Fold each of these.
Amino acid sequence: MSDVEDRFAADDLSEVSRDLYDFVMPESGYERYADGLSREVVESISRKKDEPDWMLKMRLDALALYEHMDMPSNWGPSIAGLDMSNISAYVSPKTKQANSWDDVPDDIKETFERLGIPEAERDSLAGVGAQYDSEVVYHNMRDEVAKQGVIYTTVEDALKEGYEDIVHKYFGTLIKPQYHKFAALHYAVWSGGSFVYVPEGVSLDYPLQSYFRLNAAGAGQFEHTLIILEPGSYLHFIEGCSAPKYNVANLHAGAVELFVGKGAKLRYSTVENWSKNMYNLNTKRARVEEDGSIEWVSGSFGSHVSYLYPTSELVGARSNSEYTGITFAGATQDLDTGCKVILDAPDTTASVNAKSLSKSGGVSTFRSSVVVSPKADNARVSVSCASLMLDADSRSDTIPAMDVRNQTASVGHEATIGRISDETLMYLMSRGIPENEARTMVVNGFANPVSKELPLEYAVEMNNLIKLEMEGAIG
């Protein structure tokens, strides 16, 4: 067991202070399935959602795969502390999904109000979905967006509201249950998430947002996000995630499937601030057609262990992928993050700009995979990663992999690992800035390439998280 695993103890977690996120609402009156995974649990979830037969079959086939697939080994941080027999796959407040904030139960409303969701919706969003444990409890979209033909709902509602053919065509085709053990688990017990369809030529002026809150202890969250952009359309989609701390393991194993049509452009922004008892084993994948573009903007601050590698498949000529991400690993955290890019068409381009910070014994690993196929004539790829270690107890690693099978391709990689220099601190302190504030200023400057790409409220949240980390209030 690693040093990080050794430090993952109740005594450590009980001292963690995350006041904005670490509040717990009681589960009285909630529906909670028995811990562990079984055919009965899977059938109960499907029956509760009144799903078509093909979806139930997909769930049961995925369950069979999960039961026969091995746990990840020789890859990433240890997940030995995760035991599915102690995880409930389905926990839900007994409330119907509301499309008016006034109809959301008071305890759930208070949760999201403390996280700033209603205010963000009023100020800068075209639509918002809020998931609480296993179910979406609130969903709404501006009328003018709906009039453009945009569909923004849950996958469950899409199946019932006349969009089953679209869901059936795309669901589970980009991320297949066979992909890895936790992809199979996801398809067996998925619940909640978002379904977005943007018609040809439609460009949304404001983002859509989904926020995922896992309130229950010893539970898993398995939302599925399915986004389809028709040719020439544009969307900025934002997801936020948080959970309170517990002294037991929680699991997040969602899936994100993104289909970007010819000449379409999708920006997908994420700020993940899971608590430090969370195993974050999320899977994200985009398929980009001719002249299309996918932009990933990612901030990873929480969880005990993370495996997170957004993947771009560039299958159309001149398609493009950009990844901008930052990871902050503090005490008890081992965060293995990065991205994958598959260039499979002529004149495709990709750029990766990743930053990572580690503090108080945290471990931050950047892992990238670039595959250039024989069809990718004149492909261009640039990978840059920079790591900043804030003390002598922390660790940072860079693990790039490049598989280039076309002689006309140009692929570059650069990596830097360092610490805050004494000269920089001395200079700032000589100008009357206290040492802790000087360190925070340096870290904020280091993170600026990511924060400037985020919507304002998320940039503020990210900067506040960095400030808390640097003050020692977290970890």
Amino acid sequence: MLTWVIYDIVKNKSRTKVAKFCKEYGLYRVQKSCFLGDLNKNEVDELGLKCKDLINLETDAVYLFPVCEDDFRKIRLLGNSFDTLLVSGKLQALIL
């Protein structure tokens, strides 16, 4: 399922590690503190646990928003945005 990961983390070290985890799970950076990609339920749970261990629960926040395909298609993008086909896994790569 497509999942948004959005965070507000005070410490650079923790913020960098959360971004690294997001990339390791194959998520695409949409903005500086926002990632999006296709994760299964177990991956969402694992990523959530890893983030929880890294952040200060009193000062930081990490949001994991699963989005169904129907709702994702309703998203309106304005300006310089991300490639929706790439993020949703609909874009197939051809390797020669």
Amino acid sequence: MPSLIDFRRRIRSVKNTQQITKAMKMVAAAKLRRAQQQAVQSRPYAHLLGDMLASVAAAGAEDCDHPLLAQRTEKKILLVFLAGEKGLCGAFNGQLFREGQAFLKAHAGKDISFEFVGRKGRDFFRRRKVKEAGEWTNVLVSVKFQTARDLAKKLADGFSAGEYDAVYTIYSEFRSALSQTPIAKRLLPLKPHNEDEQPGMREEFIFAQPAETMLARLLPRYLEIALYQAMLESAASEHASRMTAMDAATRNAGEMVDRLTLTLNRKRQAAITTEIIEVVSGAAAAS
């Protein structure tokens, strides 16, 4: 049976943990505001660049022989897997791991290599002996466009050289502080237009240069922006999930302190009652 001093130590320990989780929540909330602002502000540019690329393709560049548009049978696949840099962020990493395992199952029998962005994804799949093409760690703490540009160049060079027949990415799309959705998306070969989009729905652009020249300039930039947007979405999702998890941990610690305090008071009251009974019984026996 735990003694009163054991309960006091336990309460003190839980309170210390509560202070840590509360501080982590505040730090995550501050980082989330910046990451969310970056992710939301970059979305219009990414969508506009996609519309521009589709308009160029519709202007007569479908026959453009660009290496990033080469359609090949998917035998060798490169998966760019974006996960968290740290833990203590709820189900954020777990959802991405399940999405990655589902991707492996859906593409069973194919040669799949992983390009890891973030520590947690690397550590998880490295224990499962997957084929690793490269890793990018500590890049989601502060997302830089140069990182996305370097990664895009590596992917484009590998795809153009025939090292991979397709390039996919898995990342978490930020929707709100309470909602983050893991998605799998094909990056290469690029599809410069939406097959489901009906004519007249897309804004038309007027270009002075030939469509082939514009397409050759836009395709690499579109790949860079797609990777940069995925990194921003993943970083914002990680901060949001960590803030939510630390908020829940702080509230749970408070509830645990209340329960332990109640139990401590009951035991102390019971001990005092026992002592009073012993004193009264001793006095009665002496008389």
